[in-house]
């Protein structure tokens, strides 16, 4: 599968911190072939990405594997966190963000929908309190997502999608000289206005939980049908459960569709 240009000094880089479903892979107590596989690409931490554009670095979601992911990828700084929704597997690593606040003079911007921000404030109320002045704690700067916004050279467009009953978005990233990139890790249906925004993008990263149908996530057939309709130049599957063996799934796909794995990087 062709890749975007890679190399040192790239101005845009997307790293898959995690590509797994809410329980991760291997699944606790499971002895299926994927969970007992020795193949490293069948080990999947909870879904998240890191995006760098020039000197700007943002994280999408702060799941329970945040510390492990940051250490693995040697991440040391962060300019903002973007949240797709308030489910536990996307927010439970919130307290680990303090390591990125220790060397900041200003609070860390957190971008989320009103519903997701309310969840963060309820779950981690201590961080949002006015008397949170102790150095070493997470110091959030809550920013409600109301439409497109920019962080450094990154132009970011929120993409409303349907996922269970919780308000959920994905993101469209555009930066000078970089592939237009859509990230939809948790999605069952894509409303028409969102579809119209992302038709023909350079890279579509999309939820493909398992081969069988699921009530709140796209199945593999649904993801492939969506990719065919939206016609991106390239697509990658993420948020994968233990029903998916990486090598077998990759062999079954067309040349312009790939399988994301933890640690995978795309640079331009």
What does this structure look like?
This protein is of the alpha/beta class. It has a single domain, classed as Ribonuclease Z/Hydroxyacylglutathione hydrolase-like (Metallo-beta-lactamase, Chain A), CATH 3.60.15.10. It is built from eight helices and 14 strands. It has helices spanning 66-73, 88-91, 98-101, 114-123, 125-128, 192-198, 220-230, 246-252, and strands at 12-18, 48-53, 56-60, 80-82, 108-112, 140-144, 149-151, 154-161, 168-174, 181-184, 203-207, 234-238, 257-259, 265-267. The strands form two sheets. A seven-stranded mixed beta sheet has the order 6-5-4-3-2-1-14. The longest helix has 11 residues, at 220-230. The protein is globular.
Relevant terms:
26% strand; 21% helix; 268 residues; Metallo-beta-lactamase, Chain A; alpha/beta
How are the SSEs placed, and which strands pair?
Elements: E1 12-18, E2 48-53, E3 56-60, H1 66-73, E4 80-82, H2 88-91, H3 98-101, E5 108-112, H4 114-123, H5 125-128, E6 140-144, E7 149-151, E8 154-161, E9 168-174, E10 181-184, H6 192-198, E11 203-207, H7 220-230, E12 234-238, H8 246-252, E13 257-259, E14 265-267
Parallel strand pairs: 3-4, 4-5, 5-6, 10-11, 11-12, 12-13
Antiparallel strand pairs: 1-2, 1-14, 2-3, 7-8, 8-9, 9-10
């Amino acid at each position: 599968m062709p890749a975007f240009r890679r190399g040192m000094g790239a101005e845009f880089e997307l790293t898959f911190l995690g590509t797994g479903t809410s329980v991760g892979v291997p699944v606790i107590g499971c002895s299926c072939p994927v969970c007992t596989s020795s193949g490293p690409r069948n080990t999947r931490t909870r879904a998240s990405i890191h995006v760098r554009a020039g000197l700007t670095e943002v994280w999408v979601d702060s799941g329970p594997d945040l510390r492990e992911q940051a250490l693995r990828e040697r991440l040391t700084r962060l300019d903002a966190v973007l949240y797709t929704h308030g489910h536990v597997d996307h927010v439970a690593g919130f307290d680990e963000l303090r390591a990125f606040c220790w060397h900041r003079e200003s609070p860390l911007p957190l971008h989320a929908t009103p519903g997701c921000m309310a969840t963060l404030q309820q779950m981690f109320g201590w961080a949002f309190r006015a008397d949170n002045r102790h150095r070493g704690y997470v110091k959030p700067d809550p920013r409600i997502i109301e439409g497109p916004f920019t962080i450094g050279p990154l132009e970011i467009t929120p993409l409303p999608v349907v996922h269970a009953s919780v308000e959920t978005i994905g993101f469209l990233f555009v930066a000078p000289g970089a592939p237009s990139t859509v990230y939809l890790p948790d999605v069952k249906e894509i409303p028409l206005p969102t579809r119209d925004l992302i038709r023909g993008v350079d890279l579509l990263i999309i939820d493909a939980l398992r081969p069988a149908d699921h009530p709140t996530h796209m199945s593999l057939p649904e993801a492939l049908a969506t990719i065919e309709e939206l016609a991106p130049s390239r697509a990658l599957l993420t948020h994968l459960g233990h029903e998916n063996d990486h090598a077998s799934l990759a062999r079954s796909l067309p040349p312009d569709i790939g399988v994301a794995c933890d640690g995978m990087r795309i640079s331009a």
